[in-house]
Design brief:
This protein is 22% helix and 40% strand. The protein has 419 residues and is of the alpha/beta class.
């Protein structure tokens, strides 16, 4: 057992049956510590504040459906499933989307493909309700999963298994709104299996309350000619950790990840994206933009593995950070592990402050300081947010970023720019 597990789960297991169950599970895998290479910036000490490990019950979630007025506007052309504190709510969901789901009250096992996904076992074990999606072959599905978190006592464990059959297409939006209780945990596990020729466009919009502690795991496997494109925006939350492992197992599998993190005040964000090229002619494209203001801390690791079996692979990495505030920190770590000469690869990472010359120019054109800084931040984030092709989705992502950039004046300016 690691020091983290001893200090966190051991005391809880004496009084919390969920913690006792979790403790038995993690004895087999152990929990990461700050000494682990890819967890040094994850601020695992925050786990010590978790006192409500048991999942929020279905009855408690059903009693909170009065949050319906807080639902954002539906996305055009998409069916919606709404989950409140981890439990799907038929009354708030579209009938067509509801019928496509398989709900299970039993734990949906997760076999992590990578040791850095070990928290996924907790999500699979303690989830109050697991979701399964399996469209038919050659189908074209457009689905939004909207997770509402009301901040009541108890933890939330979103658990989703998605299997895309051959030549199926799916646009999936996974959106988190709200926050958890200060002594609770939001621990999610998403498992995606893509058959040959399937296509997935996944949009992850995460906007968390100030007390939220998130541990997010996503693992996926791509077969021959499968293609996955992920757009992810994370904003808010006291401590958030995203771990993603993509296995490009089939020839000509293609994977792209365009992510951004917008953090302010004392918020902390850490992400690991590990891409395993295992077959010939596989392609991967990783792009990350981090914006840290106040005393926020953002870190990101881009880890690409290319063995000899992945001849003809193409790899691109681009990590950029923008710091706004003397107390903010950004740590970017690109890494390529290449074991073949037949490859095209490029990578780079840069971090810097707002451009003072551009800021002076904007001030000289009549903008005040808040508006000028907001414009520079927008230009920086547009490199990732602008890659979202659907206008409604892009607008939703831009609105989330706007709410976490600056004050009301800057938000008003951002709104005019969005128009």
């Amino acid at each position: 057992m690691t020091r983290t597990a001893d200090n966190w789960l051991e005391p809880l297991a004496k009084s919390d049956s969920a913690a006792a169950t979790a403790l038995e599970a993690v004895r087999l895998q152990g929990l990461p510590s700050a000494r682990d290479e890819h967890w040094g910036y994850a601020h695992l000490r925050s786990l010590g504040g978790v006192r409500q490990l048991a999942a929020i019950s279905a009855d408690a979630a059903a009693a909170a459906v009065t949050v319906a007025p807080l639902l954002p506007s539906p996305l055009p052309g998409m069916q919606r499933v709404v989950l409140v504190d981890g439990h799907a709510q038929a009354a708030l969901s579209d009938p067509g989307a509801w019928s496509a789901l398989t709900l299970s009250a039993k734990p949906l096992p997760l076999a992590p493909t990578d040791p850095d996904l070990r928290f996924g076992s907790l999500a699979a074990l303690l989830a109050g309700q697991a979701l399964q999606l399996q469209p038919s072959s050659n189908s074209d599905t457009h689905l939004e999963l909207l997770y509402l978190h009301t901040g009541q006592r108890g933890s939330v464990y979103p658990r989703l298994s998605l299997k895309l059959p051959a030549n199926a297409r799916m646009t999936l939006v996974e959106r988190h709104i709200g926050g958890t209780h200060a002594e609770s945990l939001l621990c999610s596990a998403l498992d995606i299996d893509m058959a040959s020729g399937s296509r997935l466009e996944l949009h992850r919009l995460h906007e968390f309350g100030s007390d939220t502690l998130l541990l997010d795991q996503l693992q996926m496997r791509l077969a021959d000619a499968a293609e996955c494109e992920i757009h992810q925006l994370s904003a808010g939350g006291s401590n958030t950790r995203h771990s993603l492992v993509a296995q490009l197992a089939g020839r000509d599998a293609r994977f792209s990840w365009h992510g951004a993190a917008v953090q302010q005040e004392d918020e902390r964000h850490d992400s690991l994206v590990r891409i395993r090229h295992e077959a010939e002619a596989t392609h991967s494209d990783y792009r990350f933009r981090a914006l840290a203001a106040g005393r926020a801390h953002v870190s990101a690791t881009a880890d690409v593995l290319v063995p000899d079996s992945a001849r003809g692979a193409r790899v691109r990495q681009s990590l950029r950070g923008l710091i706004d505030g003397r107390g903010a920190h950004i740590n970017l770590r690109p890494r390529l592990d290449i074991n073949t000469n037949d490859i095209q690869a490029s990578h780079g990472a840069t971090t810097g402050q707002l451009d003072e010359q551009l800021l002076f120019y904007l001030l000289s054109r009549g903008l005040d300081a808040h508006e000028a800084r907001a414009m520079l931040m927008w230009a920086f984030l547009a490199d990732v947010v602008g890659t979202v092709r659907q206008p409604a989705l892009r607008r939703a992502a831009e609105e989330i970023a706007a709410r976490h950039l600056a004050d009301a004046a800057a938000l008003q300016l951002a709104g005019s720019l969005l128009s």
